[in-house]
Design goal:
By secondary structure, this protein is an all-alpha fold. It contains 6 helices and no strands. Helix 1 crosses helix 4.
């Protein structure tokens, strides 16, 4: 258990995402289950940092793609609602609901732009030279 975050302040809103997605941290874990959850959270954080360009492209591309927009809105609503829960065990069990969306952001490649004609490279859209 921990103190719930005050969502009425801008600082509180900034702390929501790491609290719901990445806590408990290893120094907050006091038993084996909490330590496993902490390692899982650090692994997710490492993946997001490693693939930050894909995550950024997915988040910035959400206004153009309805599925990306759905994933971002769902994740933001989920994070806001579960920030009121002051129990790491409940948060850790329930946050798997947004993992498919987070992993989709991690794996996002984005649309490639066609190469200019005469550049001698193949374009993705037509496959011509």
């Amino acid at each position: 258990a921990f103190k719930p975050i005050d969502t009425s302040s801008p600082l509180g809103l900034a702390i929501l995402i790491p609290t719901v997605l990445f806590r408990p941290f290893p120094w907050e874990a006091h038993n084996a289950n909490a330590m496993i959850t902490a390692v899982e959270s650090l692994g997710l954080l490492a993946l997001i940092v490693y693939r930050r360009r894909s995550v950024t492209a997915a988040l910035l591309g959400s206004p153009r793609s309805s599925f990306l927009l759905l994933s971002v809105l769902y994740a933001l609503m989920f994070i806001y609602i579960f920030s009121a829960v002051a129990n790491f065990g409940i948060i850790a069990r329930q946050r798997v609901q947004i993992f498919p969306y987070v992993f989709m952001w991690i794996a996002y490649l984005g649309a490639r732009r066609p190469a200019a004609e005469g550049s001698g490279t193949m374009t993705v859209a037509t496959g011509s030279r």
